[in-house]
Amino acid sequence: MKILAFDTSNKPLTVAVVEDGKCLARMDSSEEKTHSVSLLPDIQESLEKSGLNVSDIDRIAVAAGPGSYTGVRIAVTVAKTLAFTLAKPLVGISSLRLLAANGTDGKLIVAVEDARNDNAFAGAYIDKSGEVVNVIEDQHIAMDQLFEKLGNYPEEQVEFVNVSEHLAELIQDAMPKASVVLTKDSLPDSVKLAQIAENTEPVKDINAFVPTYLRLTQAEHDWIKKGHKEDGNISYVEEI
Q1: What string of DSSP letters covers 57-113?
Q2: What is the average pLDDT value for the chain, to the nearest integer?
Q3: Sign of the CA dihedral with 135 first, then 139, 145, and 146 last
Q4: Do 122 and 141 meet the contact criterion of CB atoms below 8 Å apart?
Q5: Contact 149, 122 (CB under 8 A)
Q6: What does the pLDDT average to over 211-237?
Q7: Is the model's pLDDT at 225 over the cut of 90?
Q8: Tell me, what DSSP letter sits at residue 211?
Q9: I need a labelling partner for 36 at 20 to 30 A (CA). Which of 126, 144, 175, 234 fits?
Q10: CATH no. for 2-95+188-220
Q11: Do domains 2-95+188-220 and 103-185 have the same CATH topology?
Q12: Are 106 and 158 in contact (CB under 8 A)?
């Protein structure tokens, strides 16, 4: 299976073309350019390096969030457009699940993204009999509440990945025996994204596939403040 995988939910941009688990081409960039400018050229160059046309791709894989609101929207929009235009299956993978793939085998891997004000996007994953299981669902959460949720696990078995310097200080104070992998050492990996996506069920309705934000954007706050409600009728994302 040939998979085109990409992630723009974090500051780095990563794109890969993978066939049956083997990387044919890969591009990673942390240049100070917007992902909207870089993504499509990087996809094209990755395909050229792999010797494939976009029509040769069997599946599109994208990191669907949480993360940068703009970054997640860019990747999801491009993924949906390619999948719909080419009539190819689309797989959306949690950005936290992807980051958790950088963790150490045998540990409870807690993937985090600094959401400021001592909050984080976080999810906890563990490998059980060769299958990665989400044991604390992805959520936007205060770090002290996250530490409470982790209270039943031995600290030395817990490993935090994608940790900012500030979150590292909080973790050190609350769970000094836990392992910490800083952001610079646990960047998102598009090859791992493709490998995860190969064994993941594609989305059933490409048109209905939307980014995973896990908290309201400022635009949504303003939209609800004007009297709109996500009450089972139409959501902000659907309306926009």
Answers
A1: --EEEEE--SS-HHHHHHHHHHHHHHHHHHT--EEEE-HHHHHHTTS-TTSEEEEEE
A2: 91
A3: positive
A4: yes
A5: no
A6: 62
A7: no
A8: -
A9: 234
A10: 3.30.420.40
A11: yes
A12: no
Tokens 């990563």 correspond to 14
Q: State the pTM of this model.
A: 0.89
Distance of CA 161 to the CA centre of its chain: 13
Tabulate helix, strand, coil % of the chain (nearest 5).
Answer: 40, 30, 35
DSSP three-state, residue 233: coil
Q: Residues with Cβ < 8 Å from 215, sequence gap 6 or more?
A: 66, 115, 140
- 206 pLDDT band, cuts 50/70/90, is very high
HSE on the CB side for 178, CA within 13 Å?
Answer: 28
Task: Dump pLDDT digits (tens) for 37-51.
Answer: 899 999 999 999 999
Reported in sequence order, the residue ranges of the chain that DSSP labels E, i.e. its strands, are 2-7, 13-19, 22-29, 59-63, 90-93, 108-114, 119-128, 131-142, 158-163, 179-182
Specify the fold of 103-185. Answer: Nucleotidyltransferase; domain 5 (3.30.420)
- Residue at token pair 């996506």: 197
Q: Where are the domains of the chain?
A: 2-95+188-220, 103-185
pLDDT tens, 133-178?
A: 999 999 999 999 999 999 999 999 999 999 999 999 999 999 999 9
- In the block, tokens 């400021």 appear at 116
Asked if 66 contacts 121 with a C-beta cutoff of 8 angstroms, the reply is: yes
CA dist 134 and 224 (Å) reads: 31
